[in-house]
Amino acid sequence: MRLVIVTGLSGAGKSTALKMLEDARYFCVDNLPIALVGKFVSLMSGSQEEDVQNAAIGIDARSGKALEELEVVLDKLKAEGNTFEILFLDAEDKVLVKRYKESRRSHPLALNGRVDDGIRLERQKTEFLRKRADYIIDTTHLLTRELKKELNNIFVENGKFSNMMISVLSFGFKYGIPEDADLVFDVRFLPNPYYVDELRPLTGQDEGVFNYVMDNEIARQFAAKLDDMIKFLIPNYAKEGKTSLVIAIGCTGGKHRSVTLARVLYDKLIETREYGIRLEHRDIGKDALLKK
Prior knowledge:
Oligomer: single chain
Strand content: 15-25%
Order of helices and strands: EHEHEHEHHEHEEHHEHEH
Largest sheet: 5 strands, parallel
Number of strands: 9
Shape: elongated
Strand order of the largest sheet: 2-3-1-4-5
Radius of gyration: 22 Å
């Protein structure tokens, strides 16, 4: 039996993870009292039912003071020969605050009503789980479907996984540099399709624009050097415990050159599939909207 303990920060996607595992025929139980975790594992391990092959336990800050006892319980389970995996879901504080405000829910540890205080306290209480986690998924930049895809890769397809989620993001400087960018690259030195009448209304998603930008030795050299540098940086960031990396590539309007180079970098990175990788074009349609 494969046993997964799903935990992390409230608002980071634990409910989504449990629902996905349930759909994958895991027997799931949420907010199980810490005192019952050992008994649950014993019952599931001894189950002869063919329908119950895997199980998942959702544990979070709602366990209150009993959460502190979980580390002892996990050590005991391990000493008894039980195997389990810990999935820890995380996200940036400002994103968690935004999610709580949008849902109009109160944080389970925000006794004074301040969500940010609740998040800070929860981080302290769950730090031991984060350190023991087999998988850490930062959902800051993930859509629900992207999170489900990562979970499916780990817990259904048994694919390779590294605790690093990389976002390749194209943007337009005239709309501002992304606040959450870790690395920013300016490609406004490349030939601009905007000045070619037939290419102006198109985007870097169209092959005409893509070929125009990449049919240039400077663009190809830049793409190769960027790929080499990013592949050098990623494992070093991962060693330092970084779980989320946003690589932003910008041109003037975020429609032609940045989209093209973001596509090229994404394709080069995804070939190895050592990390979770997503591609986003933040400003690709803004020019069209402004004209309307």
